[in-house]
Amino acid sequence: MTTQDILTAVGLIGIGGLLKSLVDFLIAGKKLKSESQHNFKETGYKAIILLCYTFINFEREGSKLAIQRPDIHSKNQLFDELKAEWANMILFASDRVIKTMKRFLKMKNQKSFNQWIVSMGKDLYGLKTNIQEKDLLLKKKLDE
Predict the structure, then answer these.
(1) Residue-level pLDDT at 14
(2) Which of 18, 62, 74, 103 has CB atoms 3.0–4.6 Å from 58's, for a disulfide?
(3) pLDDT given at position 13
(4) What is the DSSP string of the chain?
(5) Would you say 18 and 6 are in contact if contact means Cβ atoms under 8 Å apart?
(6) Which pLDDT value is given to residue 104?
């Protein structure tokens, strides 16, 4: 095959067609990677939320933890697990999520938990929300 035959073949296919195929291939690979990262992040956030919720409500929810995490027997062990999860979040979480999780670990209260949840929603889905602390507080008892 001569150079002229190769140029003729490329001319028939078209340089535009070749470039489009290459671009489509690169975009598809990037999209697949992005979707995979998003799914990993979403799964991680959901698991950590449940651990933090249990921590905040340990007296009421702690016994349920034994089903999912039989290796955790105390609130202190759960707190140690949350610190390890926080360190792991550096692999996938936004700066804001990492900082609000740190605030939660320091304050250990419902307010910092709620702020952290909102930051995760913004990180995962780009939520634009005006939700405030008072909007996330629930009554402690059914009759309140």
Answers:
(1) 64
(2) 62
(3) 64
(4) --HHHHHHHHHHH-HHHHHHHHHHHHHHHHHHHHHHHHHHHHHHHHHHHHHHHHHHTHHHHHHHHHHH-TT--SHHHHHHHHHHHHHHGGGT--HHHHHHHHHHHHH-SHHHHHHHHHHHHHHHH-------HHHH---SSTT-
(5) no
(6) 96
